[in-house]
């Protein structure tokens, strides 16, 4: 069985075909600059040169047409006919409170994606366009929506509610939803396999640290708490996002810098975080390099990131009433031994002790804690695409 995975951004689209007999990726690709001058599609098949299509693509439907053309291309394609694709899994950012699992797309699902454009204005419209384009171009093919928010919908109300007047929860559904759910779900499945115990017997803190970062406290396979909120802005400091700050900063800046709500939103989402503090970059490789060369603000940004991860890690171990394993994933979590070492430094008193030799790994599964560490610490590369493909397969074969 072959599953097509589509991840639509506002002006870009990533795709992948996974053969579910062995979970191998047959091809992957990227369409950039949809609706902007310079649209192009880059199609990658392992062992072959990239196939690039440069042609105007005015919308997501246009882009998906070209994706299907590339998939079916005589020379570069990986399928002979669309019949070979059993289903299409779509990554969707925000599913609100009702989308507690991945789901076969119908009108209600599309209405929900539309409703939650209010909290995912940059992603949900593109996600929906991707689904509608597939419905038009490949009619009858089952489309499955896989939400970044679903995995977290097991949080209890006292965890997800915000302490503001209750009427705004009732009126607008303002509450914590959490994101990176597909990644945390993958970790919630994979970590127990690596540890060799059923997930029902394990409490895990999953640390997804990348451009966007979030932690999830996972109790017996279910999310109990997570650091992102109504939107992916809450929680940790990130590449360009501020994470938790006193909400008064918002209104103060709005008044004193004369910013519109939209400008303030851009400031906190795109110009803050590690980039805003360092003035160097949002990329942690650049920051580590700059800090090593003596750039104080790059050092400050890294120190601020580390203390925030520690803060949530400690909080989540407390919320879980103890924890068996901490897992690092995402670009930073998988690759940066120094960030992992700094985050875990001086945590022996709560049972975390890193082995520097074992921690010297990049991008592969590894136990990095020492034998006498009460809490095991792992690196597990995330695989959101496989998770989307598995959910899609499960739903279309039900
Ligand atoms: P996204 O959230 O966009 O999926 P990723 O999970 O790919 O992002 O993470 C990107 C981040 O990972 C960047 O900040 C990048 O610098 C960081 N990263 C990747 N490799 C390394 C490395 N070797 N050392 C430090 N940081 C790294």
UniProtKB/TrEMBL annotation:
One annotated GO biological process: acetyl-CoA biosynthetic process
Keywords of this entry: ATP-binding, Cytoplasm, Kinase, Magnesium, Metal-binding, Nucleotide-binding, Transferase
Binding-site residues, ATP: 14, 208-212, 283-285, 331-335
Binding-site list for substrate: 91
Subunit structure as annotated in this protein's UniProt entry: Homodimer.
Catalysed reactions, semicolon-separated: acetate + ATP = acetyl phosphate + ADP
Subcellular location: Cytoplasm
EC assignment: 2.7.2.1
One GO cellular component, as annotated: cytoplasm
Function per UniProt: Catalyzes the formation of acetyl phosphate from acetate and ATP. Can also catalyze the reverse reaction.
Cofactor: Mg(2+); Mn(2+)
Binding-site residues for Mg(2+), renumbered to this chain: 7, 384
Pfam hit, one: Acetate_kinase
Pathway terms, separated by semicolons: Metabolic intermediate biosynthesis; acetyl-CoA biosynthesis; acetyl-CoA from acetate: step 1/2
Recorded family membership: Belongs to the acetokinase family.
Cofactor info, note text: Mg(2+). Can also accept Mn(2+).
Signal peptide: none
Catalytic site positions: 148 (proton donor/acceptor)
Protein name as catalogued: Acetate kinase
Molecular function per GO: acetate kinase activity; ATP binding; magnesium ion binding
């Amino acid at each position: 069985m072959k599953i097509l995975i589509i991840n639509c951004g506002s002006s870009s689209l990533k795709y992948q075909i996974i053969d579910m007999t062995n979970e191998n990726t047959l091809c992957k690709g990227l369409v950039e600059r949809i609706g902007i001058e310079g649209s192009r599609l880059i199609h990658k098949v392992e062992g072959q040169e990239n196939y690039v299509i440069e042609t105007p693509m005015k919308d997501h439907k246009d882009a998906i047409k070209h994706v299907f053309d590339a998939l079916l291309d005589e020379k570069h394609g990986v399928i002979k006919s669309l019949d070979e694709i059993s289903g299409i899994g779509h990554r969707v950012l925000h599913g609100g409170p009702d989308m507690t699992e991945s789901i076969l797309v119908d009108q209600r699902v599309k209405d929900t994606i539309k409703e939650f454009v209010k909290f995912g204005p940059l992603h949900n419209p593109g996600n929906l366009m991707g689904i509608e384009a597939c419905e038009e171009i490949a009619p009858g093919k089952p489309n499955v929506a896989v939400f970044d928010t679903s995995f977290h919908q097991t949080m209890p109300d006292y965890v997800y509610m915000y302490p503001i007047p209750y009427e705004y929860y009732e009126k607008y559904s303002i509450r914590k939803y959490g994101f990176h759910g597909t990644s945390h779900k993958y970790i919630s499945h994979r970590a127990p396999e690596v540890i060799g115990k059923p997930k029902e017997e394990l409490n895990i803190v999953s640390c997804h640290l990348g451009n966007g970062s979030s932690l999830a406290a996972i109790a017996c396979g279910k999310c109990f708490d997570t650091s992102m909120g109504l939107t992916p802005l809450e929680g940790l400091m990130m590449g360009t996002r501020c994470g938790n700050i006193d909400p008064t900063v918002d209104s103060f800046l709005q008044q004193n810098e004369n910013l519109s709500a939209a400008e303030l939103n851009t400031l906190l989402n795109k110009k803050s975080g590690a980039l805003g503090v360092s003035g160097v970059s949002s990329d942690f490789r650049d920051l580590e390099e700059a800090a090593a060369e003596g750039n104080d603000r790059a050092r400050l940004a890294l120190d601020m990131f580390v203390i925030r991860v520690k803060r949530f890690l400690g909080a989540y171990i407390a919320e879980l009433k103890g924890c068996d394993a901490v897992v690092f994933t995402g670009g930073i979590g998988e690759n940066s031994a120094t960030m992992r070492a700094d985050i875990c430094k001086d945590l022996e008193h709560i049972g975390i002790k890193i082995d520097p030799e074992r921690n010297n790994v990049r991008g592969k599964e590894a136990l990095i804690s020492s034998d006498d560490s009460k809490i095991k610490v792992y690196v597990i590369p995330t695989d959101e695409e496989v998770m989307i493909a598995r959910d899609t397969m499960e739903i279309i074969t039900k």
